[in-house]
Amino acid sequence: MIKFINEHRDHFGVELICRVLRPAVQGFLTSRGYRAAVRREPSARRLKDELLVPEIVRLHAENYGVYGRRKMHALMHRQGWEIGRDQTERLMRLAGVEGVKRSKRVFTTKSDPTAEKPKDLVQRRFTAPGPRRLWVADVTYVATWSGFAYVAFVTDVYSRRIVGWNVAPTLRSDILPLRALDMAAWAAGGRLDGLIHHADHGSNYLAVVYTDRIEELGAKPSTGTVGDSFDNALAEAVNGLYKTELIRQRGPWRTVEQVELATLEYVWWWNNSRLHGELDMRTPLEVEQAYYADLESAQPALAGHGSR
């Protein structure tokens, strides 16, 4: 009410605003009450709100404007602010920001009924004992003014890190998913011995050039059931978040190249800064760093035990 009067007092006057609105708005100030409130020193809560609301706005914008109460609360704690979840929600309302809502629409690649299909080595168990044990892959698309941009992701199940990706104007196996796989393999050192590579029955993932490359790298190809998104649920989830957090938030898109640049920035944020609820509000990078740190700390202990 104070804010409303302040915004309109020069045009209508305090007395007139209070006289007109008091019968219509329950609990509206009298002119005397307004002047007393203006002279009153701001409360500690108000001062803290004035400090935190711009911080909420800044952090929300830096994270693609997608965080809801839960992740914003975790992020504020990581920034050193001791506030509760309900307080975070109230501050977000004051700041005029909210979490993005996911769409239920799912894109499924087209199956080739004549292609030979690898066995399902995952059986919907999207867990792994460590990095580079199980990767999932899928394709989605983005409509641009110059045609469709097709996007392929390869994701490590253990850390949720996007290890390979590619954006192209075609679904061809030797261009779109293969280059994403090669990026992931290069980052992993060139060999994927023992790793399971899981995808759906899309024809681009069942192409000979793609499955041969998986086996050449030492990995084992795996596919789920035809037309069943649950059999590649984690990869579908990555696609869905990508569409929700980047594509629908920042569109419309003009060119494939514009989508490619935005995807590059998004993947960096996803891996290095985005808080993942499935990872106890950690980033994929933090999860992998913790895994290798635990591995290194266990090695001296094992060496010492073997020397006795």
How would you characterize this protein structure?
There is one protein chain. This protein is α/β, with parallel strands linked by helices and 308 residues long. 49% of the residues lie in helices and 12% in strands. The chain has a five-stranded mixed sheet with strand order 3-2-1-4-5, sandwiched between helices. A hairpin with a 5-residue loop joins strand 2 (147-156) and strand 3. The radius of gyration is 26 Å and the shape is elongated.
Short description:
The protein has twelve helices and five strands. It has 308 residues and is of the alpha/beta class. A five-stranded mixed beta sheet has the order 3-2-1-4-5, sandwiched between helices.
Main sheet: strands, sense, barrel: 5 strands, mixed
* Total strands: 5
SSE pattern, N- to C-terminal: HHHHHHEEEHEHHEHHH
* Poorly predicted tracts of residues: none
Report the principal-axis shape.
elongated
Q: What is Rg?
A: 26 Å
Distance between the terminal alpha carbons, to the nearest Å? 77 Å
Please tally the helical runs, counting DSSP H or I stretches of 4 or more residues.
Answer: 12
- The percentage helix is 40-55%
Output the strand order for the largest sheet.
3-2-1-4-5
- Structure class: alpha/beta
| Mean pLDDT over the full residue set | 87
Strand content: 5-15%
Topology:
Blueprint: H1 2-12, H2 14-21, H3 31-39, H4 44-62, H5 69-78, H6 85-95, E1 134-144, E2 147-156, E3 162-168, H7 176-187, E4 196-199, H8 203-206, H9 208-216, E5 220-223, H10 233-250, H11 256-272, H12 284-306
Parallel strand pairs: 1-4, 4-5
Antiparallel strand pairs: 1-2, 2-3
Helix pairs in contact: 1-2, 4-6, 5-6
